[in-house]
UniProtKB/TrEMBL annotation:
Family, per entry: Belongs to the phage and mitochondrial RNA polymerase family.
Segments of this protein annotated with the region Disordered: 108-208
Record bears the keyword Cell membrane: no
Entry keywords, A to Z: DNA-directed RNA polymerase, Mitochondrion, Nucleotidyltransferase, RNA-binding, Transcription, Transferase, Transit peptide
Protein name: DNA-directed RNA polymerase
Function: DNA-dependent RNA polymerase catalyzes the transcription of DNA into RNA using the four ribonucleoside triphosphates as substrates. DNA-dependent RNA polymerase catalyzes the transcription of mitochondrial DNA into RNA using the four ribonucleoside triphosphates as substrates. Component of the mitochondrial transcription initiation complex, composed at least of TFB2M, TFAM and POLRMT that is required for basal transcription of mitochondrial DNA. In this complex, TFAM recruits POLRMT to a specific promoter whereas TFB2M induces structural changes in POLRMT to enable promoter opening and trapping of the DNA non-template strand. Has DNA primase activity.
GO molecular function: DNA-directed RNA polymerase activity; mitochondrial promoter sequence-specific DNA binding; RNA binding; RNA endonuclease activity producing 5'-phosphomonoesters, hydrolytic mechanism
Localization per record: Mitochondrion
Annotated PPR repeat ranges: 314-348
Domain of life of the native organism: Eukaryota
Length: 1255
């Protein structure tokens, strides 16, 4: 039993009534110091130990019966054991320090803190220094019936003494056998033989300040045992040992007396982090936000009083209540919080002192002496006043009150402006930031007044949190049945709102009166953050958006919880008066972007930071909000789902009066299987589905962050600030619940280049290609088109066959076949609905924005790859969405712009892959008639554009070319069309550059060539040569494959080999391609795919000699790292830290009223790494990080050159006029990136990170 448990148990047994009867007190030294600390000084001091007192008074607790006497005797024996164990632990603290050959130093009884003064620690006589607790143990035992546990403890003590004696004898024996001039051969002794032990001792003495105490002891003991020739040196070393032992004893005494806050703080920091701490913080902040201060205060005290729960608390939790009392000017309450901090073994941090000083600033009668004492205490804790202003997040007038308090004792104090400490930039961008003479940052084609007006519109949208838009299906004529269904749905929703409102209020009353003495977190504060009607609106909206096939309970709950959190965050910012400050800074920020203002030589991020520092008064814009843990979001969502399922009902005869009238639920909670796992599912009733489909409603409601922004995004200036005006956004996309990425980013010293590149991508303005949008909507509202990637309506879905499985006329095989058909039909209907709704959302948003200019804020994934934040409609989407997006700013084509448009069109067709740029241009000129016909008659002409690989983008390009050639001067034609430049198997390009592989570099266009190289065709040609050779040698499968090896068959495998595809995965890819060839014999698919994947891998190994070696090195490194218990980390050349979040999966059960949800968590850092995922993912993730680094470098330099630039990973977009400039920048930055010693720096980083403990 551990000391902590013994002390806690002893505390429980000690009754307060016994202590109150005692008048005599003694010092704390007479009791177990650990016990005293556990009681936080609240237990009264008594003349005897609590255990003895309990034993003496135990007879008064029970009636004098035989049974109770027996119970008293048993308890007395247990108390004897506890007392014996405590005394044993108090008196027997021996520290064994192992140092190769076993050495040990024995400390005296802790609590003394002084040196024993005894001689060398090797003699057997030292065993008498260890107190024998045998007599002490049996002293208080029952004489009539000795306890066998006491005997066991005594025997353990004797055995321990014998082991120590034998150990000391062995050490002495080995010391005598050792040569006098050689060391013990310990691991840390790396000096050559014959080196004097005195030198080692001197070295140990010099490094004593930096070495751990145990390491100093090891060095001293090792030196002591290496030589017996020099008596003087030996005496010096023994003195050193005794000095070190004395220091060790002092430190042990400090630990046991709990008088070292540093050690407690370190231990607490390790245990307080995690979801529980975050849940407590979010709970307290929710209570404070709704004004339920008593609930928050009592909850914190309930957590503080119980030791097992107190471990989840850290200083920031206590600071939440301190800020509340600071607002009220309750300095005495803040003083109590400081006492609680001290009792918990925690140190006040900046937030604690900030709350105290703010409170002093609000109290007019506060004495300057109190303020001075607070500032002096801050200095004693190594905290400066400037840190308060640079690191704390302020709300409302907190900063002004803090400054007011400081001015009482320091009237001339002004916070330092050095908010952004200067860190060295990565070498790749040092010149970019240092030499800006030739930079020409672009302006937007808007006046400052227009941008400020656009900001107001965006602010209104985000404050509303939702946007309701017209559906593109509204163009259909309204039938009588549609009108009837819409009216019915409107009536039902009005009833559902009333029912949900009543149910929500009743459930809140129940939760509000729930007994909180069980210390459990309660959902009540989270249900009070918004108005009741807002929760109801969120639930009604989720019902309207639910697919007919239903939704996973976990996904539905997560979405509901996230919507509540988003609204709560916006309300927080409004309450904290951040909106007004944001508006003021943004209006000044538009001066940088507007075309009618002066030209600046700073980047958007730098300009915003300067403006924010100038507008320092008032609330902080960055930080201050606690994000909810995933479990809290999920629990809140499941609670709302449960309300919906239990309370939303409809009449069964609403569509058919022939049915009996009764209320039936509109949502059903059921279970279904996903793979081999059973999951909860929420499915709408068929009546509701039928009503929604027949109504074909004309309105769609989206969350505000789903829509593109109406003004330029707020620039990313830190990890926690940027993108939207009010809506929360993450800089790095992560799995729900993963926090390791954010922690790494916050520790990173300089992310300027990464943030600036994201800002550049987000500052590109867009508009809708309205003629093309109208054509797409017309096909969408007709019957769709599978060929053109326009999903058909559900009316075109296959009918689900109905049959009675109990019908005896069907045979077993017929029933199985019909069941299979039903499953296939349902799956097809579900897929068609998903695709149809996805297209509906995209087209409806595009239609809503058809007359607007808009922007896409960007963020990134954990590898650094960038993405637009709006999920549905953006330029990373399908061919349809890319085709209807054009740049808002137009630029004249210039001399070569029209040629680039024609080349781009040929690229979109997928033809002429092996032709030179001139050859593609000539081909485009030969098909000008088809191009113009496609532009003029897209749906009724020759329809040439429909055969392109990307048909809608090809049609848009045809229209742009037609408009240009028909203009008076094509060179002056203003084009808004984005021209793409795509990478040639980008992953292989990076591998070839890393390995300096000339042959591989040539095949992926890294070397000058007359015509563009196509690596896929090259691999196919090489595979065909291998096949022909094998066929000639009589291999049957090689003969069967004659004429079937093409670029398409090998392309996917070649492309994914770079990203770590295995032979198994490659075989499946080739098998799929072979099955698509109707002429290929299906009975040979298996053998052919096995054969071809081997040839593809062999061909790639010959073409890219360094690629496989680099991949193998990365894979093996990741395997070794993960096997040692670490996750793989690295830093990109731009300084972005990356960590792979792959850990062993653990299950966690979320208990809710509707269902227990089992979460499969594979990102928990407490779990061991998943070795297979770590090693397989490292090569592709590393290449992705290099790819994103190259894109970011290109974005920065294009911005400084005045270009419009966006990217879809390795595909770069710009105006036709600036394609040549962008190509030049792209090549220059690729060379600059791979001129760095990337692999060497990676190796150095891995060695430093994971191998620092090796000699």
């Amino acid at each position: 039993m551990s000391l902590l448990r013994v002390c806690a148990f002893a505390k429980c047994l000690s009754r307060r009534s016994f202590f109150e009867k005692c008048a005599v007190r003694v010092s704390f030294a007479d009791c177990c110091r650990r016990c005293v600390w556990e009681r936080n000084g609240a237990v009264r001091r008594i003349s005897v130990t609590p255990l003895q007192l309990q034993r003496r008074n135990v007879s008064f607790l029970f009636p004098e019966t035989a049974e109770t006497k027996k119970r008293v005797l048993e308890q007395s024996q247990l108390l004897d054991v506890l007392e014996a164990r405590i005394q044993q632990l108090r008196s027997d603290v021996v520290l064994d320090v192992h140092h190769a050959k076993v050495q040990f130093v024995k400390a005296p009884s802790y609590g003394r803190g002084t040196s024993s003064g005894r001689g060398p620690r090797g003699s057997p006589q030292e065993k008498t220094d260890i107190p024998k607790s045998g007599h002490m143990v049996t002293k208080g035992a029952s004489k009539s019936q000795p306890s066998r546990w006491i005997e066991k403890l005594t025997q353990e003590k004797k055995n321990k003494l014998k082991k120590q004696q034998r150990l000391q004898q062995k050490i002495q024996t080995k010391m005598k056998d050792k040569p006098t001039t050689k060391t013990t051969g310990s691991k840390s002794n790396l000096m050559p033989p014959g080196t004097s032990h005195k030198t080692i001792s001197t070295a140990a003495k010099k490094s004593r300040g930096s070495m751990k105490l145990s390491e100093e002891i090891c060095a001293a003991v090792s030196s002591k045992s290496t030589s017996t020739t020099d008596a003087t040196d030996r005496a010096d070393e023994l003195a050193q040992v005794e000095e070190l032992e004395r220091r060790l004893n002092q430190q042990v005494s400090q630990w046991t007396a709990s008088s070292s806050p540093e050690h407690l703080q370190e231990a607490r920091d390790e245990t307080a982090c995690g979801d529980m701490n975050q849940s407590i913080r979010s709970y307290l902040e929710a209570c404070v936000f709704v004004g339920d201060i008593d609930r928050a205060h009592h909850f914190l005290l309930s957590q503080h009083r119980v030791r097992s729960r107190r471990k989840h608390l850290n200083t920031d939790v206590y600071n939440i209540m301190m800020r509340v009392w600071a607002k009220k000017g309750a300095l005495n309450q803040i003083g109590r919080m400081f006492i609680l901090l001290e009792e918990a073994g925690l140190k006040p941090n900046l937030g604690s002192y900030f709350a105290a000083l703010e409170c002093m600033g609000r109290k007019v009668t506060c004495s300057p002496r109190v303020i001075s004492r607070c500032l002096n205490q801050m200095e004693d804790d190594s905290l400066s006043v400037d840190d308060l202003f640079s690191q704390c997040a302020f709300r409302q007038d907190e900063r002004d009150m803090l400054l007011k308090a400081i001015h009482v004792v320091k009237p001339d104090f002004q916070p330092s402006d050095s908010q952004q400490t200067s860190h060295s930039c990565p070498s790749l961008v040092q010149d970019y930031y240092a030499q800006r003479a030739d930079h020409t940052y672009p302006k937007l084609d808007f006046t400052q007044e227009e941008l400020q007006e656009r900001f107001k519109c965006q602010l209104n949208v985000e404050q509303a949190c939702t946007v309701t838009i017209d559906s593109v299906e509204a163009a259909k004529p309204v039938t009588e049945n549609m009108a009837k269904m819409r009216e019915l749905l409107a009536e039902q929703r009005a009833q559902w709102q009333k029912i949900l409102l009543q149910a929500l209020r009743e459930s809140k009353m129940i939760l509000a009166n729930t007994n909180t003495k069980d210390y459990r977190l309660n959902l009540y504060p989270y249900l009070c953050l918004l108005e009741d009607r807002e929760y109801v609106d969120i639930m009604i909206q989720s019902v309207a958006n639910m697919p007919p096939s239903g939704e996973s309970l976990k996904l539905l709950a997560r979405d509901l919880g996230n919507r509540v959190y988003t609204k709560y965050t916006v309300r927080q910012k409004q309450e904290n008066q951040m909106v007004e400050k944001m508006a003021g800074i943004y209006n000044l920020y538009t001066d940088l972007l507007a075309k009618d203002t002066k030209v600046y030589d700073v980047l958007p991020r730098e300009h915003w930071v300067k403006l924010e520092m100038k507008q320092s008064s008032g609330p902080s814009l960055q930080g201050g909000e606690t994000s909810w843990p995933y479990l809290v979001t999920l629990e809140l969502g499941t609670y709302l789902v449960d309300l919906m399922v239990k309370n939303l009902k409809i009449n069964s005869d609403i569509l058919n009066p022939a049915y009996s009238k009764k209320l039936i639920p509109i949502l059903y909670h059921m279970y279904t299987f996903r793979s081999t796992r059973q999951i909860g599912f929420i499915k709408p009733h068929p009546i509701l589905t039928q009503m929604q489909q027949d109504a074909m409603e004309t309105k769609l409601t989206f969350d505000s962050y789903v829509m593109p922004m109406l003004c330029p995004p707020v620039p990313w200036t830190s990890v926690k600030f940027g993108a939207y005006v009010l809506s929360p956004a993450k800089l790095m996309r992560t799995v729900d619940g993963a926090t390791q990425h954010e922690q790494l980013l916050e520790e990173c010293e300089n992310l300027s280049a990464v943030l600036d590149s994201l800002n550049q991508l987000g500052n590109c303005a867009w508009r809708i290609n309205k003629p093309l949008l109208d054509i797409i909507i017309s096909i969408f509202n007709d019957r769709g088109s599978d060929k053109l990637d326009i999903p058909p309506p559900l009316s075109e879905a296959p009918k689900i066959p109905h049959f009675n499985p109990h019908d005896p006329t069907y045979t077993a095989s017929e029933k199985a076949h019909m069941k299979k058909e039903v499953i296939i039909a349902k799956k097809k209907c579900s897929e068609m609905h998903s695709l149809r709704m996805d297209a509906l959302y995209k087209l409806s948003i595009a239609h809503h924005m058809r007359d607007e200019i808009f922007w896409f804020p960007h963020n990134m994934d954990f590898r650094g790859r960038t993405y637009p934040c709006p999920p549905y409609f953006n330029h990373l989407g399908s061919d349809v969405t890319r085709a209807i997006l054009v740049f808002a700013e137009g630029k004249p084509l210039g001399l070569k712009g029209l040629d680039w448009l024609k080349i781009h069109l040929v690229n979109l067709t997928g033809l002429k892959k092996r032709s030179s740029l001139q050859g593609r241009l000539e081909y485009a000129n030969t098909i000008m008639e088809d191009i113009l016909d496609s532009a003029d008659n897209p749906l009724n002409g020759k329809k040439w554009w429909m055969n392109a690989d990307e048909p809608w983008q090809a049609l848009a390009c045809c229209m742009e070319i037609a408009n240009a050639v028909r203009s008076p001067d094509p060179t002056q034609f203003v084009s808004h069309f984005p021209v793409h430049q795509d990478g040639s198997c980008n992953g292989l390009q990076h591998y070839a550059a890393l390995g300096r592989d000339v042959i591989g570099a040539t095949s992926v266009n890294l070397m000058p060539c007359d015509v563009p190289q196509d690596v896929y065709s090259g691999v196919a040609q090489q595979v065909e040569e291998f096949r022909a050779r094998d066929a000639q040698n009589g291999l049957k499968i090689a003969q069967v494959l004659e004429g079937f090896i093409s670029r398409k068959v090998v392309k996917q495998t070649v492309m994914t080999v770079v990203y770590g595809v295995t032979r198994y995965g490659g075989r499946l890819q080739i098998e799929k391609r072979l099955k698509e060839i109707d002429e290929f014999p299906k009975d040979h698919v298996w053998d052919a795919s096995h054969y071809l994947v081997r040839l593809v891998f062999s061909g790639l190994k010959e073409m890219f000699t360094g690629t496989r070696e680099i991949q193998d090195w990365l894979t093996e490194s990741a395997r070794l790292i993960s096997k040692s218990g670490h996750t793989v980390e690295w830093v990109t050349p731009l300084g972005l830290p990356i960590i792979q979040p792959y850990h062993r999966t653990r299950s966690q059960v979320l208990k809710s009223t509707i269902q227990h949800i089992t979460l499969q968590i594979n990102h928990d850092t407490k779990q061991s790494p998943d070795t297979v995922k770590q090693k397989n993912a490292f090569p592709p993730n590393f290449i992705h990080s290099l790819d994103s680094t190259h894109m970011m470098l290109t974005a920065l330099h294009c911005y400084s050159a005045g270009l419009t630039f966006v990217s879809v990973h390795d595909c770069f977009w710009t105006h036709a006029l600036t394609v040549d400039t962008m190509n030049k920048v792209c090549r220059e930055q690729f060379v600059a990136l791979h001129s760095q010693p990337i692999l060497q720096e990676l190796s150095n980083f891995l060695l430093h990170k994971y191998c620092t403990r090796l000699p």
